[in-house]
Structure formats: C-alpha cells, structure tokens
Design goal:
This protein is an all-alpha fold. It has a two-stranded antiparallel sheet. α2 packs across α9. The longest helix is centred in the last third of the chain and has 39 residues. The two termini are about 15 Å apart. The N terminus and C terminus are likely disordered.
Length: about 375
C-alpha cells in the first residue's frame, strides 16, 4: 500500500493505478522470458516501470516516516523485511536445485562468491564478464538495495529539519548523488570492479519516480486529457522503441521516458481509473514481486510442456505456437506468483512483523 500523501494528493490510501501498473510490469517481464520460438524484447521495459514506481513509493512513504524517530532506520527495516525474506528463500531453493542438478544453472557450477553476492545484492564478475545472481532477475534488486541505501542517507541528512522542509530536503542529496552515479555509469569500463556495475544511467529512473512523487504532493498533476495522452504515448514508446542492448545507456531514453509518462499519467488518472480496476488485477499487483521472482522456476516446466505438446507446431507454425506458449506462460506464472504471495510471502511477512514487533510494512515496487 502507498502511505498517505498529504492534503493536495487527493488519495490517502492505496493507489489502484500503481497496483495495476505493477501487474502490467511483472507480466511484461514474464512475456520476455517465456519460452517462445522468437524473443520479444520490449517487455523488459517492465523493469523501467518498476524503477520509476519504486522512487515514487519511497518518496510518498517518507511523508509519514519523517514524523517518526529514526526515519532512516525504520525505512530500511521495512524494506528489508519486505524484500529480503522471499528473495533469500527462493535463492536458497535455487541453490539447492543447482546443487542437485547443476545443468539448470546459467553457469554449471556457480562460484562461492557468486553464491554469496547473490544473497548480499552485490554484482559479481567472472573471467567472461558480469555474472548473474542465482535468480537471474535479481540484478534489479541490486539496484533496489542501492536506492534504499541512498534514500536512507537522504532521510538521515534531513532528519533535523521541519517535516515540510524534509520532503524537499531529501532531493538536495538525491539529485546530485544519483546524477553522479549516472555520470559514472557513462564513464565506466569493464576494467572497473564488478560492484561498480551499479553505476548505470538507469538509476535516473528512480530519481524520476521521486520527482513524480514530489509533483504529486504539490498537487502538480496534468489534466485527464493530457494524462491520457501521456499514457498512450508511453505505451506506444514501449511497442516501438528498443535500445541496442538492455544494458545500453540509451535505455533511459528508449524505455525510461515512456515509463515516466505511463506512471505519471496513471497517477493523474487515479480518480477516473479507480472505480474500474478489477480486484483480480489489484491482486496481481500485490503479487507482482512474487510473480517477478518465481518465473524462473516455472519456465522449465513450460519448456517441457511445449516440447511434449507443441513440438510439431513450433516447426510448422512458430508464430501460432509462440502465442500459445506466451499465453500459457502468463497464466501459469501469474497463478504461481499469486499462490506464493498468499501462502508464503504474506504469511512470512506477517510472522516477521509479529516476531520483531514492527508496525505494518508498506509494499514496495519489486
């Protein structure tokens, strides 16, 4: 849930539009990775939507945190309890599976440091280049943890000021800090240490989400007609634009700007969209983190199914087979993600909150 946003924001609870975008972003990434005869790269832009939403959520939630003691510590504690347990659980499961059957790993035998760095959210390197975490999509969580650390520092630096000043005060640190990290990303070479892979212009998308939250708290939202155009242009950008590689600096332009347009438009259209967003879509949004992490465990099953039932179709009609496999992937991964969210993630989070005596933890964007 997104915390109260102040008198000008208009909504003091969950943003349904943001929840729907979470579902869209998670399923877009699933579509990229699903077993298909031909790849579809554009769905990777779902990650960019997540990053913009992440910055938005952090800035919005800080409105309440700034009224509490030790806001930075509380902020980090909430995020750690929300993100780390499920990720560690699934990473441990992945490690066990790799130990039993090494062939399912990206690397047949991950190094000790690769295993450790996967749990610690640190980029690692092999002689052949950057290494993936044990859960491949976990690379985005490395950036999330960087975002959390930067935001916690910002909260610490402005803690002594009045609440109304603190909201803008966080920007006094975040803007130059993230700008410097983005600049270093443009200068970085493969000779730099592996952890410097976090220096990437993609961090500007997080800052963009922070700025959108600031505009929202100030009541600076576009009119519905303009917001609708922004969402349309953003979605069109996702369909038509693609950087040379997902790691290219141009990603911020090709996918980051459309992500900003879609998120800002959805926020502005909340009053119109809210009554029409179905509960099942909100559930998918709540389960988006689980959907995002669980996909790698489901795809081998889908791949086996495709070989058994659609092998001939792949040869004779690859396009038709691709659409069928995509539909199966979306349904099965979404169902598995919802099950993990309801039966494991939510119960585990509730147990940890009771164990450590902490107040309700707000969901975050990944």
């Amino acid at each position: 849930m997104i915390a109260a946003m102040g008198p000008k924001a208009g909504f003091a609870g969950e943003y349904y539009g943001i929840q729907a975008l979470r579902a869209f972003a998670a399923l877009a990434v699933v579509a990229v990775h699903s077993p298909r005869p031909s790849p579809w790269f554009h769905g990777q832009a779902g990650v960019d939507i997540f990053f913009v939403i992440s910055g938005f959520v952090m800035m919005i939630s800080s409105t309440r945190l700034l009224l509490k003691e030790n806001p930075a510590r509380l902020f980090l504690w909430r995020r750690i309890l929300r993100i780390v347990p499920l990720y560690w659980l699934l990473t441990g499961l992945r490690l066990a599976m790799i130990t039993i059957k090494p062939s399912i790993s990206v690397h047949a035998k991950p190094s000790t440091w690769n295993i450790i760095s996967s749990f610690l959210f640190i980029p690692s390197m092999t002689p052949d280049g950057p290494d993936h975490p044990l859960i491949i999509v976990g690379w985005t969580l490395n950036f999330e943890m960087l975002f959390y650390l930067l935001f916690a520092i910002a909260l610490t630096l402005v803690h002594s000021r009045k609440a109304i000043e603190k909201r803008g005060g966080t920007l006094l640190f975040l803007v130059p800090a993230i700008g410097l990290i983005a600049l270093l990303g443009l200068l970085r070479t493969d000779a730099w240490p592996a952890w410097t892979a976090l220096a990437n212009p993609i961090v500007l998308e997080f800052l963009a989400g922070v700025m959108l939250a600031r505009l929202t708290m100030m009541g600076s939202l576009p009119k519905p007609w303009l917001a609708t155009i922004m969402v349309g242009l953003g979605l069109l950008g996702f369909l038509l634009l693609v950087p040379d590689t997902p790691e290219a600096s141009s990603r911020v332009l090709f996918w980051g700007i459309p992500a900003i347009l879609v998120v800002y438009g959805a926020i502005s259209l909340e009053g119109i969209l809210r009554p029409h967003i179905p509960q099942w879509l909100l559930l998918l949004g709540s389960a988006s983190y689980a959907i995002y992490l669980i996909q790698g465990f489901i795809f081998p099953v889908i791949h086996t199914m495709s070989g058994l039932f659609f092998g001939r179709m792949v040869q004779e009609s690859p396009s038709q087979a691709g659409w069928i496999m995509l539909a199966i992937s979306l349904v099965l991964v979404a169902a598995a993600g919802v099950a993990v969210h309801l039966l494991i993630e939510r119960r585990m989070t509730d147990y940890l909150k009771q164990l450590f005596g902490r107040e309700r933890i707000s969901p975050v964007a990944l």
